[in-house]
């Protein structure tokens, strides 16, 4: 009888362990690249923000229909024209076990204001004032219409975890751009996952955080194995073969293949990320002449790129603001006229052309290397000889920050879902103090445009604000401040049973914490 009881106990234990093992849900994800750092403030990029939504949590986040949903902040109210009061959820803890308090938000805010990449977004904000452990005031220097928009970029960090020094005497809170720091290698957030293993360029393993506060979430994924697969055909083949469960992006050439394959689902959405080239006026004298910049714009066949390279999976652009944004001006149409381009080059004294260097990533945007090659070929028709170099984004961004080429590709999705953000980062006169123009590798500068942005950002009347932003877009168009190509549409692929359609969004930061898998 004892032997039978013992056997039964072992069998029961084995069955329990087996059930527990079966209950664990692991998914394999393949992106075109992995995050370059674990520091949420090191780089303002899609990879960093995707990481932040997985291992940290914002105060507020966007819904699929671009409304605001409470996250770590459960409520907020405008208490005067320059102050919004937020209340944090009770009982939220970081991965370290430390409790989330208003002091962590205050500490995070100060670090954001010091970040070269993020301080431009937070330029209108003056302070976080702690009211009590779960209440704080977010203050602006003047009335500002984008407070909640910006709050989506506040992912509170664990101030206790990041305080103090490392064994070699460096500050744990140190923010090092493209460098090795404590924050770039270690993290403690409030998000649904922790990073348990990471090998740059090879894989990142995310494990579910047992103490995650959002018990109402449908998410049932326990482990995510993220593998970067740069080559589009290889990434798609991995999904179709069942080697991975979710991929992004799906290239335009394989949309139909993923959609029609038995066992996989294609998910698409219109995109608002503008793909552009910037012309460095500090490196090339000719680029200071608006006629030369316009000639390049006229030489580039945007529609042809969308039609042939993007297979129609994009929207031809002539400005930064997409349709639906306040600054969008439908009267600004794409330029393409090679003869007009040649005439402008001759008028500017460059009929014989000149040589330039061009750099672009080869795993950041859809078909980025192919687009760069096409643009280089188009410029040859107006006697601009291009020396093109493409590289993985982990190597590209440091060279971009160095302004290492005469022409550089950059895509931009407005961080605040607002037209002013494009100008703030891409075409504003570069200013290290404010962070404005942080990604303006063309060194374009127009004080009139900057003044319009500042006025728009201090205007709460949406009709008047729209007029100001459209005038701003018109100035940039007339100046050919940059070369707009197209707005990139979004496509993801998932195996059946991975309900990714519920977690993807126009911002291209799927909320993996809410992912339900059958």
TrEMBL record:
Transport in keyword set: yes
Localization, UniProt: Periplasm
Record key words, sorted: Plasmid, Signal, Transport
Family in the record: Belongs to the bacterial solute-binding protein 5 family.
Cellular component aspect of the GO annotation: ATP-binding cassette (ABC) transporter complex; outer membrane-bounded periplasmic space
GO terms of biological process kind: peptide transport
GO molecular function term, any single one: peptide transmembrane transporter activity
Name of the protein described by the UniProt record: Periplasmic dipeptide transport protein (Dipeptide-binding protein) (DBP)
Record lineage: Bacteria, Pseudomonadati, Pseudomonadota, Alphaproteobacteria, Rhodobacterales
Gene name per UniProt: dppA_2
């Amino acid at each position: 009888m004892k032997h039978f009881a013992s056997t039964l106990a072992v069998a029961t234990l084995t069955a329990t362990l087996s059930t527990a093992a079966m209950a664990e849900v692991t998914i394999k994800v393949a992106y075109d690249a992995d995050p370059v750092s674990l520091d949420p403030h090191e780089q303002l990029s899609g990879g960093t923000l995707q990481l932040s939504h997985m291992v940290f949590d914002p105060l507020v986040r966007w819904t699929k229909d671009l409304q605001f949903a409470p996250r770590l902040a459960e409520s907020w109210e405008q208490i005067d024209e320059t102050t919004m009061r937020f209340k944090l959820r009770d009982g939220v803890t970081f991965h370290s076990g430390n409790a989330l308090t208003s002091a962590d938000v205050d500490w995070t805010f100060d670090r954001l204001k010091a970040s070269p990449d993020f301080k431009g977004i937070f330029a209108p904000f003056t302070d976080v004032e702690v009211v009590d452990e779960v209440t704080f005031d977010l203050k602006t220097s003047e009335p500002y219409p984008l407070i909640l928009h910006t709050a989506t970029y506040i992912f509170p960090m664990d101030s206790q975890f990041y305080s103090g020094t490392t064994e070699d005497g460096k500050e744990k809170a140190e923010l090092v751009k493209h460098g090795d720091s404590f924050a770039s290698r270690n993290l403690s957030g409030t998000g649904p996952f922790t990073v348990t293993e990471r090998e740059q360029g090879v894989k990142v393993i995310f494990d579910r955080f047992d103490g995650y506060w959002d018990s109402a979430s449908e998410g049932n994924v326990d482990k995510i194995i993220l593998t970067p697969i740069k080559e589009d055909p290889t990434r798609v083949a991995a999904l179709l073969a069942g080697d991975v469960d979710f991929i992004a992006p799906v290239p335009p050439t394989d949309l139909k293949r993923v959609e029609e394959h038995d066992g996989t689902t294609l998910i698409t959405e219109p995109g608002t990320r503008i793909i552009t080239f910037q012309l460095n006026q500090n490196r090339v004298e000719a680029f200071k002449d608006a006629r030369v910049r316009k000639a390049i714009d006229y030489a580039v066949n945007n529609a042809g790129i969308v039609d042939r390279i993007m297979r129609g999976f994009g929207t031809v652009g002539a400005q930064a603001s997409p349709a639906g944004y306040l600054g969008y001006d439908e009267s600004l149409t794409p330029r393409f006229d090679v003869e007009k381009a040649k005439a402008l080059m001759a008028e500017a004294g460059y009929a014989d052309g000149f040589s330039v260097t061009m750099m672009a990533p080869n795993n950041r945007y859809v078909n980025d290397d192919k687009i760069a090659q096409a643009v280089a070929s188009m410029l040859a028709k107006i006697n601009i000889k291009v020396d093109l170099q493409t590289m993985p984004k982990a190597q590209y961004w440091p060279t971009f920050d160095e302004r290492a080429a005469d022409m550089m590709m950059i895509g931009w999705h407005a961080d605040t879902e607002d037209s002013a953000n494009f100008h703030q980062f891409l075409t504003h006169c570069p200013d290290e103090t404010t962070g404005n123009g942080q990604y303006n590798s063309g060194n374009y500068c127009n004080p009139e445009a900057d003044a319009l942005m500042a006025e728009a950002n201090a205007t709460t009347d949406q009709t008047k604000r729209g007029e100001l932003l459209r005038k701003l877009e018109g100035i940039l168009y007339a100046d050919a401040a940059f070369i707009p190509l197209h707005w990139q549409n979004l496509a993801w692929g998932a195996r059946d049973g991975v309900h990714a359609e519920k977690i993807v969004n126009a911002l291209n930061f799927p909320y993996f914490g809410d992912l339900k898998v059958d």
